Amino acid sequence: MGRFLSSLLLILAGICFVAALFAHPDVNEPKLLLHYVATGHPIQNGTVSDETHHVTAKLIGAPKLVTLGPAEALQFDGKHDYLLLAAELAEAKAALPTREFSVAAWVNLNSVDQEWGGIVGALQDNADKEQGWLLGYQTGKFVFGLATKGADDGDGKLTYLAAQDEIEPGRWYHVAATYDGKITRLFVNGKQEAESTKQSGDILYPPKADFAIGGYIDQDEKHLLDGAIYEVKILGRVMTADEFTKLAAKNDNLINYLDPTPGKLKFLIKPYLQAGTLNAMTVMCETTQTAKMTVKYGLQVPLTQTATAEKADQAARINTVRLEDLDPGTPYFYQVTCTNKLGESITSELYSLQTDRGPEHAWAFGIIGDTQRNPEITRKCAEGIYANRPNMLIHCGDVVDDGYAKNQWVKDLFNPMENLLARVPMFPTIGNHEQNSHWYYDYFSLPQPEYYYTFKYGNAQFFMIDTNKPVHSETEQYKWLEQELSRSKATWKFTCHHHPCFSSDEDDYGNHNKGDYKQKPTWGDPNAQKLIPLYERYGVDIAFNGHIHVYERTWPIYQMSINQQKGVRYLTSGGGGGGLEQAAPQRTWFNHHFKRVHHYCYAVIHDRTIQFKAYDVDDKLFDTFELTKADER
Questions:
Q1: Which DSSP category does 93 fall into?
Q2: Cβ contact 135:105 at 8 Å
Q3: How much of the chain exceeds pLDDT 90, in percent?
Q4: CB-based contact 10:4 (threshold 8 Å)
Q5: What is the distance between the alpha carbons of residues 591 and 562, in angstroms, rounded to a whole number?
Q6: Angle at 175 between CA 174 and CA 181, to 5 degrees
Q7: Residues 6+ apart with CB under 8 A from 2
Q8: CA angle, 546 as apex, 544 and 549 as ends, to 5°?
């Protein structure tokens, strides 16, 4: 604790960053509303004032001082760190412009792929409610968003300007925006990138918002900056294009700075397994630089076999290598080496994998869903699943909270699950939060067409379906599923899709639907329910789903009644991290077991018997059942 406090004081003491470029900031600059730069103001109770003393910022998380070329800057981790200038905008009135203003910042970003990121601003952007302003970035480009009274459509309307060029991680940028009451402009490194006349009049601020540096923060979202900020300045006047050009020229040593010793080659995502079969396994990883991937593997150390990507000369950041001609049910050791264009290499630790043992042997699998953005809960679930040593894992969708936010894939999915996924292949189904993002298809190696697919494991066949898309009888997925189910000879048939056919949840499909009690409850997703006739016709045993952040198991259901001989069991496992939901006030007819808890599930199968268990994140068993099939359906 003493070391932490000492580090905190050092961080706070240097929060206004020291740099030769602005050794003597002009505190008396006309209409200067806010200015964060290096001076070393005294720290009191974990807060620090800006140069103007208009606001006192609270340090959130543990950002730290770093030196990046000519500038010393405050580095934010993209997960916890930011500066809270004011939680109530009235407290920062002196620092907030009302109409004409300029905002500018020096920033160096590590990660730029997330859908939204903030440098400085105060806004709300919730559905149609759009108010305030933000200087930030979106999917790799700098942006500026502004809402004014002149464009107000009743609940506010934001206009976003976007820069033309992609942001290059690790480079310094001067990003600025101006608004003169009629025209909004965006500048990057002294060059005007965009202009709009859609906004006019005074700025329309939200009733409540966080005024912050280092994050896009509104009522229901928090996207924090992964990188460093050297300076933030807000002026109650419009800076000219010529001023920005001269400022960029004056500081070209910062803009043109290139680290002479670029960041080392590292694993951004450590090796993980995909697409396990009787005779093959896919190994994937992601590195901080483009690199060529080699996998050494074997039954014992030293490893004697080597595999590379299909195109061995092709370097990439996300690498995939398929190990083939493996023996069924056999444990192998493997180790990954990635080499960049300079010949520098990194090698992973030694991992193990095991192929499918085949239909004659006992086997096990884990179930998890809706991990979203809660890495500590996800980590506990992954650790609990791996403690049972499953052969493979299925994920019921919503693997992250925002499919376009690359940072979430790295920090909220793969990092907390790295120990499990390095040893057990995961088969996911796509949820609504993935937003059909390319990252879903980049990070998973799935059978075509990927958004739906089937695979066999042990004596079971799994059918993975995308219920974000229509699945009625005339759709491609429905016709495919009917064909695959009809010809399946597997002892066990399991389906998995994100949305539930049956749910006792109070507000998604229940009698609190839309919060007005006026809509008749559907007790399940009307789209997914169109698949029920197929499940009953072809003898599906269990239909897994997520979406509702609870655990629920139904009675076996056949033709909308409980039938112990012919019924399909529907199982919701949405407790991998997402915020928990609640059951309707009255019990539904189909519900067998409902629990509002973060959790994971585990199933073991031998021949015609399955034993199923559900555990909370403290590894306490809260539901179990065993089913033995007497004969063929």
A1: G
A2: yes
A3: 73
A4: no
A5: 10
A6: 135
A7: none
A8: 140
* Mean local confidence (pLDDT), 521-538: 97
Q: Tell me the fold of 370-628.
A: Purple Acid Phosphatase; chain A, domain 2 (3.60.21)
How many whole angstroms separate alpha carbon 119 and alpha carbon 584?
41
Q: Is the pTM of this model over 0.85?
A: no
Contacts of 354 (CB under 8 A, 6+ apart): 276, 329, 330, 331, 332, 391
> What per-residue confidence (pLDDT) applies to 69?
78
Alpha-helical regions (H) of 488-558: 532-537
Residue keyed to tokens 């179990």: 624
CATH number of this structure's domain 267-354: 2.60.40.10
Q: Which two tokens stand for residue 33?
A: 């509303």
The model's pLDDT over 241-271, given as tens digits with 9 standing for 90+, comes to 999 999 999 888 889 887 655 567 899 999 9
Determine contact, residues 43/12, Cβ cutoff 8 Å. Answer: yes
Listed in sequence order, the DSSP H helices in 463-605 are 476-487, 532-537
DSSP β-bridge partners for residue 402? none
Domain ranges of the chain: 2-255, 267-354, 370-628
* DSSP one-letter code for 346: E
pLDDT in the model for residue 313:
57
What is residue 17's predicted lDDT score, i.e. its pLDDT? 33
| Amino acid identity for residue 508 in this structure | D
Return left, alpha or beta for 296; rule: phi > 0 is left, psi -120 to 50 is alpha, else beta. Answer: beta
Please state, in angstroms and rounded to a whole number, the distance separating the CA atoms of residues 146 and 455. 49
Mean pLDDT of the chain: 89
Neighbouring C-beta atoms of residue 52, cutoff 10 Å: 18
Return contacts of 260-267, CB within 8 angstroms, 24+ apart.
Answer: 262/170, 262/289, 263/170, 263/288, 263/289, 264/288, 264/344, 265/289, 265/291, 265/338, 265/340, 265/344, 265/345, 265/346, 266/346, 267/338, 267/346, 267/348
Is 2-255 CATH 2.60.120.200? yes
